[in-house]
Amino acid sequence: MDRIRIEGGRPLAGEVEIGGAKNASLPLMAAALLADSPSLLEHIPHLQDVVTMTRMIEHLGADVTRTNGGIRIDPSGFADAEAPYELVRRMRASIYVLGPLLARFGHARVSLPGGCAIGTRPIDLHLHGLRALGAEIRIEHGYVHASAPSEGLRGADVVLEGPNGPSVGATCNVLMAAALARGHSVLRGTAREPHVADLAGYLSAMGASIRGAGTDVIEVDGVDRLSGTTYRVIPDQIETGTLMAGAAMTRGRVLLRGCRPDHVQVEIAKLREMGAYVEEDNDTLLVGADDRLRAISLRTAPYPGFPTDTQAQFMAALSLAVGESRITETVYPDRFIHVAELNRMGADITVELGSATVRGVERLSGATVMASDLRASAALILAGLAAEGTTECLRVYHLDRGYERLEEKFRVLGAKIERIGEKG
Predict the structure, then answer these.
(1) Residue 298 forms beta bridges with which residues?
(2) Rounded-to-integer distance, Cα 199 and Cα 234, Å
(3) Catalytic: 116?
C-alpha cells in the first residue's frame, strides 16, 4: 500500500510529455481481438488498468507482448468466450470484450461489472445496442449470456443515448460489434469523446467502414474480416487537464508537449476564465498563472462539455481561488467523495443535490488524506502541491490505474514529491 508524500508550496515549472490515453487504450486493446492477425498498439501507457486488460485478453487466448512504448496483440489463439468475475470485477472497462466476443464467436459469457466508488453505472445501453444487432441476451447468476443468430449479427438502426446522455462504453461496444455485422448500421446518440473517435480510427485502419465518429451519429458498413495493423493511441486528455490545473493553481509555468489542444478546449476556456494564461500550438500547451485564480461556475457534461474526469482536479484549483465557485456534476452526481478530504486540508466546500459550492481560501494546509477513486487521488495530490507543509496521500493504487508515473512528472516540474512503499 504505497503512499505519496508531498512538501507543498513550490510552483510547477518546466516541460513534461503527455502519455497515451488510458480511456483510448482499453477499447483499442479489446478491438484487437476482432482482427485475424496481430496489431501493434503504440503509445500505450504503463497503467494498472492496462495490466488488467492484458490479463483479460490473455485469458481469452490472445498473446500479448509488451514492446518499447507499445503492446503487440496476436489474436490467433483467441478461443475462450468467457470473461470471468475475478477479472471483470477489477475494472469496469473489461466489459469492452463483450462486443468482440459476440462478433467473433457468436456467443459470450461475461460477468456483470457492478458499481464503483462514484456510483453505479449500469450496462443497459450496451445490451440494448447488441440486442438491436440481433443478439439474444439474458442475465443469470451475475453473468451476461449473449448469443448471435446462426448467420451472425446484422446491421441495425440503434439509439445509444440514455437518460444521462450518451454512453461511451455502449458506443464502443456496439461499434466494435457492428464492424463485423452483416449490412449497414446507424448508431444514433453516440458518445463524441476523443477516445471513441480513436477507436473508430483504429477499426478503420484494420479495414472497417465507419463514418461519423466524433459526432452523435456513426454509420457502419459491416465487413467480413479485419486485419491487424500498427496504430498509435491519442495523448491523454485527462492527464493534460490535470497538469494544466496543477500549473495554474501553484502559480507556475509549465509547457506540456505531445498533447492535443483540440481535445481540451473547454478546460482551456475555464482556465482562462479563472485568470490563468494558456498558449496553444499544434501539440503543445503553455499554462501558468501569476496570481490567485478567480472563482467560476462549471458544469460537467459529456464531451465536448467539461469532463467529469477533471472535475475533482479543478475543484482543488478552485479551492484556492478568490470568491465562490459553483460546480454541478451531471454525469455522476455522487462524484464528490473527495470533498471531505479537501476540507481536511482547509478547503471550504459544501455539497448539496449534485452541486458543490467552493468558497476559495487563501491557503491549504498539508494533511494526511485518503484517495477514494482515480481522479480524486489526482485532485488530492494537486492540493498537496499547492498546500503549506506536508501532505501524505494514501490509497494511491487508485492513481496507478490511470496515471503513468505522475509523481515523477511532477518531480521533473520541480515538485518535492516522493512515493513511499508500505515499509517506508
Answers:
(1) 327
(2) 10
(3) yes
Q: Where are the domains of the chain?
A: 3-19+235-420, 22-232
For the CA atoms of 53, 59, 63, 66, what is the dihedral angle to 10 degrees?
Answer: 30
d(CA 76, CA 150): 22
Domain boundaries 3-19+235-420, corresponding CATH code: 3.65.10.10
For domain 22-232, the CATH architecture is Alpha-beta prism (3.65)
Catalytic residue among 116, 172, 259, 393: 116
- Is the pTM here over 0.90, yes or no? yes
Q: For the beta carbon of residue 338, count every other beta carbon within 10 angstroms.
A: 29
SS3 388: strand
Q: Is the pLDDT of residue 56 over 90?
A: yes
Whether 3-19+235-420 shares its CATH topology with 22-232 is answered: yes
Strand partners, 325: 358
**DSSP labels for 212-234?**
-BTBSEEEEE--S-B---EEEPP
User: pLDDT for 152-207, tens place per residue?
Assistant: 999 999 999 887 789 999 999 999 999 999 999 999 999 999 999 999 999 999 99
Tell whether the model's pLDDT for residue 115 goes beyond 70.
no
- Sole residue written with cell 443469470: 140
Residue 294 one-letter amino acid: R
Report the distance separating Cα 96 and Cα 5, nearest Å.
Answer: 35
* pLDDT tens column, 200-253: 999 999 999 999 999 999 999 999 999 999 999 999 999 999 999 999 999 999
